[in-house]
Design goal:
Elements: H1 14-24, E1 31-32, H2 49-60, H3 75-86, H4 91-94, E2 98-104, H5 105-120, E3 131-135, H6 139-147, E4 153-157, E5 159-160, E6 165-166, H7 168-177, E7 183-187, H8 200-212, E8 216-221, H9 231-234, H10 236-243, E9 248-253, H11 255-258, E10 265-271, H12 275-290, H13 299-308, H14 311-342, H15 350-353, E11 358-360, H16 365-375, E12 377-378, E13 384-386, H17 395-408
Parallel strand pairs: 1-12, 3-4, 3-7, 7-8, 8-9
Antiparallel strand pairs: 2-10, 5-6, 9-10, 11-13
Helix pairs in contact: 2-13, 2-14, 3-13, 5-6, 5-12, 7-8, 8-10, 14-17, 16-17
Length: about 400
């Protein structure tokens, strides 16, 4: 009898199970619209040209070695990452009240931030502070905060299924009713999974209520630049909240906008009231990191750092990011046009109104099941699709499949 005989089998992670099922499928027209990774029009992973260039520079740099990085990470990476989020002219940076913690991807940044908040926010070891996540949200948000020790994780209104857009009234109402000092996880841009973002005017309304109600802002910024093609536009909400005087955390990921999925490059940007507070916060985060991964890896951080800190490479990177964003926008336009040409019931305006990698199609679970079993088009049960999985070669087949699912399955 094993000591672990009573350990239950955990359910598989849905998106990776979907990919495994796709790989086993032998149908010649199968399409994977599940996993959140960029694909070219040939449906292949893309190593950004600027990344290849920087990797060669790193290999040829005789001054580099494999010594441990500082616990909080590569300093030039951390400062450059925070500057990308907040802007070159950020008063908060100039006032020396911004710091960063290099993390293992965006998930690691969320976890370090969550662990710090559980230990030190509101009152020491206060696991009862409510944490609000959007309904729906990226599945890891719930798990990260639960595993950090928070006991009260609540949904806030976000998606209006009837109008296939933002439920602003419900969102604002939840902000008004939340206990003071509650933590709200906000998607900085390209909301996952819906692709629906507040407008700038709506963000201003959200910020006004959060400031008045003394709510804590924790931004998840996984798609800066990738959503619209503009780093500035995709960071607008973050920069506005900082300009309004919020102390906040920003979990940054460079998986999508650098294509560095397996390098796990993330940064937790901390915006404090002043340098003294920042120093104390970072000192406690250093203790958390020390017992979590001790020291971060260097390769991915060096790629990002060299790119962001070189004006020439930075401009090249922005061009690479815009290439990816533009392809996604093109696929949105074409999918909407093809569904309308087929006369598919319902409105499909939301496909082009949404932004970023994902689209919440509005397909029901039964329609999704039809898509997978009958048409071999793989997507999440929620109806979320990765727009990067669409190509000029498969978009007609996908549009026809959606049309069939909507017309045949109620």
């Amino acid at each position: 009898m094993s000591l672990f005989s009573d350990v239950p089998q955990a359910p598989p992670v849905a998106v990776f199970k979907l990919t495994a099922d796709f790989r086993e499928d032998t149908h010649p027209q199968k399409v994977n619209l599940g996993v959140g990774a960029y694909r070219t029009d040939d449906c292949q992973p893309w190593v950004l040209p600027v990344v290849k260039k920087v990797e060669r520079l790193i290999v040829e740099d005789e001054s580099l070695n494999h010594e441990y990085l500082p616990i909080l990470g590569l300093p030039e990476f951390r400062s450059a990452a925070s500057k990308v989020a907040l802007g070159d002219d950020s008063p908060a940076i100039k006032e020396n009240r911004v710091g960063g913690v290099q993390a293992l991807g965006g998930t690691g940044a969320l976890r370090i931030g969550a662990e710090f908040l559980r230990r030190w926010y509101n009152s020491v070891n206060n696991t009862a502070t409510p944490v609000y996540v959007s309904a729906p949200t990226w599945e890891n948000h719930n798990g990260v905060f639960a595993d950090a020790g928070f006991k009260d994780i609540r949904p806030y209104h976000y998606w209006d299924a009837a109008k296939r857009g933002l439920d602003l009234a419900g969102f604002l109402d939840d902000l008004e009713k939340a206990p003071e000092h509650s933590i709200f996880v906000l998607h900085a841009c390209a909301h996952n999974p819906t692709g629906t973002d507040p407008t700038q005017e709506e963000w201003k309304q959200i910020a006004e209520v959060m400031k008045r109600r003394k709510l804590y802002v924790f931004f998840d910024s996984a798609y800066q630049g990738f959503a619209s093609g503009s780093l500035e536009k995709d960071a607008w909400a973050i920069r506005f909240f900082v300009s309004e005087g919020f102390e906040l955390f920003i979990a940054q990921s460079f998986s999508k906008n650098f294509g560095l999925y397996n390098e796990r490059v993330g940064n937790l940007t901390v915006v404090s009231k002043d340098n003294e507070n920042l120093t104390r916060v970072l000192s406690q985060m250093e203790k958390i990191v020390r017992t979590t991964w001790s020291n971060p890896p260097s390769q991915g951080a060096r790629i990002v750092s060299k790119t962001l800190n070189s004006p020439e490479l930075f401009e090249e990177w922005k061009g690479n990011v815009k290439t990816m964003a533009d392809r996604v926008l093109l696929m949105r336009d074409q999918l909407k046009a093809k569904l309308q040409a087929l006369g598919t019931p319902g409105t499909w305006d939301h496909i082009t109104q949404q932004i970023g990698m994902f689209s919440f199609t509005g397909l029901t679970p039964k329609q999704v099941e039809y898509m997978i079993k009958e048409k071999h088009v793989y997507l999440m049960a929620s109806g979320r699709i990765n727009m990067c999985g669409l190509t000029s070669k498969n978009i007609d087949y996908v549009a026809q499949s959606i049309h069939e699912a909507v017309t045949k399955v109620q």
